[in-house]
Here is the input.
Amino acid sequence: MRDDNLDPVFVNSRREALIILGLFAVALIYTVTYCYLCGYNRAVESIETYWGIPDWVFWGVFAPWAVCAIFTTWFVFCYMADDDLDQGAATDEDTHDAG
Amino acid sequence: MMLAEAGAVNWTLVTFLVYVGGVLALAGAAHHLAKRKSFMKEYFLGSRGLGVWAFAMTYAATSSSGGSFTGFPSLIYTYGWVLALWIASYMVVPICTMGLLGKRLNQVARKGGSVTVPDVFRDRHGSPALGLLTTVFIAFFLTVNLIAQFKAGGVIIQTLMKGVDAFDWISAHFTGIAGFFDGITAHYLAGLLLFAIIVVFYTAYGGFRAVVWTDVMQGIIMGLGVVILLPLVLHKAYVHLSPVETSAAVIGTPIPESERYEGHEQRQAERFHLGQLTDGLRKVNDHLKRNEPSAMLGPGQTKPKDGEAGTPDPFLPLGVALSFFFMWAISGSGQPGNWIRLMAFRDSKTLRRAIFTVTIYYGLIYLPLVLIFVAAKTLPITVEQADQAMPVMALFAAPPILAGLLIAAPFAAVMSTVDSFLLVISSAIVRDIYQRGIDPNVSERTIKRMSYATTAIVGTIVMCLAINPPQFLQDIIVFTGAGMASTFLAAMVLTLFWRRTTAVGAAAAMFGGFLSVAGLYLIGSLQAGEFATATPLGLHPIIWGLSSSLVVGIITSLVSAPPDQALVRKYFHASDNT
Here is the structure.
């Protein structure tokens, strides 16, 4: 079994999954770290607001949320492969279908 | 309370009944359409033909369970802004839960002709025993989760219909049963019964396509409901809350009740402009700084129980915050209810567009929910039970006709999760146990009857179990979500992406994850004397469960006999597929 004969859907899916895991890791580290440093154990009177949202929530949650939405848009429209999922699909007889 | 206003109740009720009528009509249409197609694939998988909107909305609606519209609002209402961090993981939930496994799972299901999740494990590894094991785990977790969802449905109907003569009359018949349980009312029992009848009927009758169509309608209602509620609540905050001083010297000094809403009438008469909405939110923060400063910061404070003294516990300490960020995205990737949808979309393009759609959709739901229920903490409403925060807020902030729509939003969220889970359980029983385990030559007519009956029986059992449920819906949802992800995710990832995975390895991964989570919840419950979890090193059981599941799955696969090479070629090689 040679690796250069691998199913392209499998190969593309694996590569895309690794990038998604990278995004998840960056979002997790940034958000939790920022919110912990700026939103925990702090004097309430020092909190500023942006459009009524406390600063640590705005920069720790709302802003990265927007960045992730932009990244997702790029990822699905510019990067993710349009693979043929029907290649090698089972016939109706193979689906063990009573119908 | 607002419910006492007869006019409001009637308008709300009309809107709500129109919604329920729509759901039942869609079930009828789906049932009619299914007559022309293969029953098994159509009833449980919608013939693998979901387009962008159907796929995106059914995915979003199923994921946004009763917890999102009952438990989550109640937590925000209790703890404040820290819930923004608690839910922050939803910024990557769509791309993680749909993108990590979606394309590959869909392809593997097509290659194997798999209709259910147990089918995928069974066909990919050529192991009926593994399929059966998957079925047992799925039935256990989804049944437990459904108890929480049914409770949410009962509470919503109770809130909506209490005071309506017909509902009060039905409720009167449950007074005797309610007397057996602490804190359970006859109105809740009547609401639970009505909810069960509606959801079981349309799920059993319409099958997967009805569930998807109603999910689309429910998803739109949920999104619209929140988007409409946000400005209404912020405007209410602007109108009701008095301007207060927030110098360092007075922070933490509660504002007397008599001063909290001073000048309300004058502000009510002002002409509306957009600046009032951000002003409303600023006022909310000012009032919180004075009355409840802990709600402005992490980690939030749990309230001591009645009669108990002492320091309150932190609600979201660092380890738990980390665990929840991890949990929503990763746990969502490991839910069989979501996987069924990933097996049903039409093609890659549909998947890509749906990920984008759900990303926007979640942003429009979860962030506004935080704003709405932080604001609710300062408004003049009375929430008798924590889980009623959403319906009470809808009735407070929205005109009566909109309140019906807004109350339908959490109801829709609950229904869309319940119908999906009911179908997953019945498909697991009918397809995986009966058709593939007992009688492969069973007729389509028998399969149909068994599917309807199984859905109805499971619904009835869950309804009975929901008669006396635990108080916080979110606890059960978190337990089952963590349990399912820990049990299934590593097994599925290995199954889809690692050629060396064996059936024994996948089964070991399931047991490893399940026993870790169940064990930590058991230890935590024994220590606390109530349903709770142990959190070694401050981390939630899902992290321990997933880690142990992955490690056990890999080691067991490596030490067991290599997998059948014909199966490996079928699922991982290009040459044999064309």
Q: What stands out?
A: Chain A has a mean pLDDT of 88. The first strand of chain A starts at residue 49 and ends at 50. Chain A has two helices and two strands.
